[in-house]
Amino acid sequence: MIRLFFNFCYFLLLLVFSPVLIYSALFKGKYREGFGEKFFGKAPVLEKKTSRRRVWIHAVSVGEVNLAASILKEFEKRHPDFEFVVSTTSRTGMELARKKFVGKSVFYAPLDFSWAVRRAMKRVQPDFLVLVELEIWPNLLLTAEKLGVPVVVMNGRLGEKSFRNYSRIRPVMRRVMRTLTLVTAQDEASAERFRALGVAPERVFNVGSIKYDGAQSDRQNEKTQRFSRLWNITPDDRIFLAGSTQDPEEEMAVEVFRRLAPTHPELRLILVPRHPERFAEVGKMLEKTEFPTQLRTELSENPEENGRAPILLVNTIGELGGWWGTSFVGFVGGSMGSRGGQNMLEPAAFGTCVSFGPNTWNFRDIVKNLLTHDAAVVVRDVDEMTEFVRRTLEDADFARTLGQNAARLVASQQGALKKTLDQFDRF
User: Fold this and answer.
1) Residue 2: predicted pLDDT
2) Is the pLDDT at 85 greater than 50, yes or no?
């Protein structure tokens, strides 16, 4: 009955949003790729080798794919005899997954229709299903239980808003959540919400956020050094990077640059929009400014051909982490509107002077930690963003202290990945 209930709900949602979905598919190219895998569960047919256990890791989009890469790397060290396959949901997640997991089976996860998840499960034949962070898909979880596949949530996050929504159908959710074999949560608040929704208390553990472990801290890493050479970044440059941005955050960053550039010639700006479908839109906005701009895709492998434009638009996927390593001061996007923030640990780990907007509920505990340790600053509008960047440029002690606090905090919080896999091995 539960499967039929959710199938019915999904059909209603499809009917309601079908005009938007059809428009996006026809004119924006979204949702068309992987249609058979998503709607009919046409995952790769994988032969079963009895001597190897197969782990299916599901990562929704770009952020989760990056996290999955860290998990899988440590997983393979501990269990070299395991076989790993990876699924994702979004097109951008798929593009990154194909780069991150070369040589492994990568595919689109099925939509949560009972026939799609059942077919995908039987084609993939996993021994374990690992969900990164969490998407509660009832039919997927119930099918895994029926087929005897343990489901593990790693780096589990369950926000207050999601918890309230799930609580409205708590009797149903309790049945669904009882299928989870193990949950390693990012924080105690999430752990308590998992327990309240029905996960057995002895299966839920607060281990901290794996995102701290996955954060690169060495600015001499190969990718950052390569990017620095490509864009001819010198030790005297002060890179202001606005990353994972959404409308209107790019315009705000450009306005900050416009105000400060005349008195601070050492300042250069890098913009990295969150969604690739906005690359062209941001590029057109930059064409209307008085500043020369370069596109990441136009940079030659010969740095002498690239010059030193004041603004760079990174119109590629999966490179933000490396570019953060070039930054002196940063703004983490998705935090001025309704997105709820993006990962601010990447720039913090590098010792960048980190700022973000006031709307960061998706990272509430991380933000609280950063602000408590004077490791980041909240900016609420373009004036506050300007003053923050100005202060980092003109007050060396402030910039140095802020960056050092951030780097030390991230280093002190690492270890969640080890605890996560310790719990997996115990179960």
Assistant:
1) 67
2) yes
Q: How crowded is the C-beta side of 315, counted as CA atoms within 13 Å?
A: 19
**Closest to 107 (Cα-Cα) out of 49, 57, 150, 64:** 57
Report if residue 20 sits inside a domain: no
Tell me: pLDDT of 126 over 50.
yes
The answer to whether residues 373 and 280 belong to one domain is yes
Do the Cβ atoms of 281 and 240 come closer than 8 Å?
no
Residues 233, 199 share a domain = no
Average pLDDT of the chain is 91
E-strand spans in 287-374?
293-295, 311-313, 329-332, 353-356
- How many angstroms separate the CA atoms of 181 and 172, rounded? 18
Indicate if 322 and 359 belong to the same structural domain: yes
Q: Give the distance, in angstroms, between the CA of residue 394 and the centroid of all CA atoms in the same chain.
A: 33
Q: Which amino acid is at 373?
A: H
Contact present, 70 and 214 (Cβ < 8 Å):
yes
The domain tally of the chain equals 2
User: Do 256 and 385 belong to one domain?
Assistant: yes
- pTM for the full model? 0.78
The torsion angles phi and psi of 184, rounded to 5 degrees, stand at -105, 115
Instruction: Yes or no: say if 216 and 321 are a contact pair by the CB < 8 Å rule.
Output: yes
pLDDT in tens, 315-346: 999 899 999 999 999 999 999 998 899 989 99
Say whether both 194 and 317 belong to one domain.
no
Residue 27 lies in a domain: no
Tell me which residue range forms the domain holding 157: 33-213+415-426
CATH number at residue 275: 3.40.50.2000
Cα(363)–Cα(90) distance, integer angstroms: 21
Extended strands (E) in 207-285: 238-245, 267-273
Is 200 in the same domain as 226? no
